[in-house]
Specification:
By secondary structure, the protein is mainly α. It has a single domain, classed as lambda repressor-like DNA-binding domains (434 Repressor (Amino-terminal Domain), Orthogonal Bundle). The chain has five helices and two strands; from the N terminus they run E-H-H-H-H-H-E. It is globular, with a radius of gyration of 11 Å. The relative contact order is 0.25. One of its GO terms (molecular function) is DNA binding.
């Protein structure tokens, strides 16, 4: 699933570690999500969207191919 987490995170001047701490996950988890190597749970997706000031449907774009 494609996402805009890295772009939005940088716009808010958050480091991966900052975002990870706010969500209660590891920096490696944030890195994996940003690089499309891990799809977050629905709850984590909603938390990410909330922290980044957007909605889940704007944060994630399903790869339907």
């Amino acid at each position: 699933m494609k996402n805009s987490i890295k772009k939005l995170r940088k716009e808010k001047n958050y480091r991966q570690e900052d975002l990870a701490n706010a969500l209660g996950v590891t920096r490696q988890t944030i890195n994996a999500i940003e690089n499309n190597k891990y799809d977050p749970t629905l709850l984590l997706a909603f938390k990410l969207a909330n922290i980044l000031g957007t909605t889940v449907d704007k944060l994630f774009e399903p790869d339907l191919t």
